[in-house]
Structure formats: structure tokens, C-alpha cells
Amino acid sequence: MIIAVDASGGEYAPHEIVKGAVKAAQDFKIGIALVGKKEILHVQARRYMKDLDITIVDAPEYIDDAESPIEAVTKKQNSSIVVGTMMVKTGKADAFVSAGSTGAVMFAAFAMLGRVEGIERPAIGSIITINITSPFLLLDCGANPNCRPKHLYQFAQMGNIYVKEVFGVAKPRIALLNNGEEEKKGNTLASQTYQVLKASDLNFVGNIEGQNLSKGMADVVVTDGFTGNIVLKTLEGVGEAFIKLKNNTPSTSSADTMQLDAGFGSLVKRIDYRESGGACLLGLNGNVIISHGRSQSKAIRNAISMAKQSVDRHVCQIIQQSKFTEPVTPNETNGEEKS
Q1: CATH classification of the domain holding 98
Q2: Could you report the per-residue pLDDT of 197-219, keeping only the tens digit for each?
Q3: What's the pTM value of the predicted model, to 2 decimals?
């Protein structure tokens, strides 16, 4: 297995990226291809290359967050994002991990790898671990701000496959993020999607409200990319606030305080983006993991772990082999399916 890693992307590149990639190579015994400026990466990684399966792939150009993703990907064919994605397309890498420009990674992946047949909108899926005993996959987390019910239905289908294969859940519980539990609640998208999911053969458990996300009520939570991205960034902001609070809280020798601090630290860890490492792009003909732009070594190591799991469990191939049909609605007539 070879995981291509964008060593130029992110605020802490290349040092923290290389550090995380080295740790992943040590922990998982896999091949790592560091993609970026060869002369810099050689200095950073050469002492590890003798004992670990680490190679350097030259990509002298860099795509900045401020650049237009479409224009940058089109013009900068020697950028780390384009070169890394091409490695997946040509089979030189089994997956690509990047903390670089999210827009550029998404566009490069869509344009170069292509969508799985039958999938209209690939989605970003993020593993949320607020409840350590019952993590769930949230999707879409930002790829599709405007959706129709059929898109959320496909997100649910892909999420169902991912959780089955990666989490080992035989019959994942699918929930629809909404502002109420009742069937008729929500805007037009939510109310129509509810009917589509209810009529499907998925294990649909109904609507889930924001305050119930931590209660272990679902394995897959689907929503549009606009809402999903707000949820993800809200959790990230809460996590950062807790980390700051924890770091500024004076420690004492009291047993009760120490126990409370241990529980607080556990909560902080569960909502810290550095723990999960990244989000997977589902619905493409290749494995791509998008990491947080501020990812340091631990997050990169964990993002590579996520990529490895996707490859090990053949998630992309299983999605490719699945048949994605038009959703059935309760208004179906004469055997025809409606979207």
C-alpha cells in the first residue's frame, strides 16, 4: 500500500506533514509518497528513508487557499494537489491525503478521478466522535451546499457502505438532521428527504436534532453540505474553546478535581479535529482524504490511518460496484420511480 501525502499543503507544511507521515509509516508499516518540493523534502525526510518505505515525488508548484480552485488546478499541473491526485488516478498510490486548499483538492478529485457511475454528487464524510462508544459519520460536510432529496438519499447509501465496512456495523442506523423529530418537521428539503429515506431499504431511524448528535442514536447522519459544514465548524469551535479553557485551568491535587479534569480532557480529545485527522470524499473513483488546514503531525498521522482503513476495507470499490438507482417515494405510481 502506498499513500500519497501532500507535503506542501496546510499551515504547518512541510515539517509537521513529514513528521506525521513518518509516524504513520512507522505505525502502519505502509509506503508513504511525500509530494512536494523535492529539495526541501529531501532535507526533512532523508534520515527516515533508509529504514522506512518513504519516497519523495517532486511537485514544485503550490496552490494557495486564496487562489481560485478551478484556475489553480488547471494551470498548476505540477502542484502537489494535482500530482498527488494523478498518482491515485494512475494507480501509483492507493489514496491521497491533503491539508491543502479544500476547494482545489475537491476540484482536482472531481475532475481527475471522476464520479462513481450513478452518483450525482460526491460528498464529504467526517467521523464525529463526541460519543466515544458510538461515533457516527456526518455527510455532507461541505461539498454540496445546495441539494435535492435524491442527493441526500445517495449520501445515505454511501454512508451506509462506509460504516458497514469501516465500523463493522451490520445494519447502520441512518438519521436525517432536522430541527425536530416529527416526520413533518423541517424545510422542504428535509420533509421530502424524510419520505424518500422512509421508503428506502435503508435502516432509517428518522430525524435527529442537533442536541441529540452525542447520544449514540445514529451511525450515519445525512444533511446538505451547507448545514453539515456549519455543524462541523461549530464542533471545531467548541473543541478549540474547551482546549483553551483546559490549558488555562489551574491544576490542583484534589482527587475530585483530578477526576473531573480527566473527564474534561477526554471530552476535549473527542471533539478535537486533530484526533480524527480528516474527512473522506465519497463517491469518487479513488480514495481522497481532506485534512484540516491547521493539521499538525498527529492529525496527519490519523488522516493517513483513515486513508489506510478505506483502502483496507475496499470502500471505494464497493461503492463503485453498488447500483445507485432513483429513490422511491410514497407518491410512486404505475411502478415508476420519482426523485
Answers
A1: 3.40.718.10
A2: 999 999 999 999 999 998 999 99
A3: 0.88
